[in-house]
Amino acid sequence: MLRLPDTLLDACRCDPRTPLSGDPERRCGLTHAEARTRLNALKPWLAEQQQLLWARRQEALLLWLQGPDCAGKDGSIRRVFGGLSPVGLNVHGFRQPSSAERAEGFLQRYRRCLPAPGHIAVFNRTPYEGVACDLFDGFIDASSLAGRLTQLAQFEDELATLGIRLLKIYLQISRTEQKARLRRRLLDPRKHWKLCAADLDAHRQFCTQNAHWAGILAASHRDAAPWYIVPANHKWLRDLLLASLLAREFERLDQHWPTPSLPFDLDTLERA
């Protein structure tokens, strides 16, 4: 088996009683070298599965990637999906919505980016920003949370009816690790563009925001659309877990190459 076993993947499945109680520093019994070797071995298989998805054009895969600042959303997308064909792969990053986007409803900008059959879409930040960040930024009050969570559950159910298989991932890092990554960005001029004043505010509020996200994860984890909490202090483990969860979704599709009637045979081609 190229991917990690179900026991390790299921251990990342959100526990609604204590969503963020796991240790983001854990290594799952792996070393850096072992994880890199397994990821490199898994990538060609993922690439073939993407080709099968594109050839069949029946289902679509949608990955929602959430996590605190510096959790590695960009990095994991680059390392896990970098070997796939850009044809049929769509990556969307969602920053703070514009005033026009706020006026049309918090789910609309995500609806516009849903994948067509045969495609994989990755959302860097998810519709749950409309529950967490909109509250932090003062665009909604606490009385709006229950209604938005209901809308999100309905949206997820709608995706299933459209043949879009949803994978919800929360990258968990510690406050200490976040601070270390912010420090590295400050020391590397090539990464200064990633920094903004809000990063410092978010770090100062790490514990408060972490607790709020724990509540959101607990309230929105369902058997029909579960959350997976991926320990992300170690980038090499984060990437392998993410790739393995994606691989398991492909396995569940049980894909086979299409067998259409051929438009011409080899003899006809040789005579052409």
TrEMBL record:
Q: What is this protein called?
A: Polyphosphate kinase 2, PPK2 family
Domain Polyphosphate kinase-2-related residues, every copy: 33-250
Extract the PANTHER family matched here. POLYPHOSPHATE:AMP PHOSPHOTRANSFERASE (PTHR34383:SF3), POLYPHOSPHATE:AMP PHOSPHOTRANSFERASE-RELATED (PTHR34383)
Alphabetized UniProt keyword annotations = Kinase, Transferase
Organism of origin:
Geopseudomonas guangdongensis
Q: Which GO terms describe its molecular function?
A: polyphosphate kinase activity
List, alphabetically, the SUPFAM superfamilies matched.
P-loop containing nucleoside triphosphate hydrolases (SSF52540)
- InterPro entries from the entry? P-loop_NTPase (IPR027417), Polyphosphate_phosphotransfera (IPR016898), PPK2-related (IPR022488)
What protein family is recorded?
Belongs to the polyphosphate kinase 2 (PPK2) family. Class I subfamily.
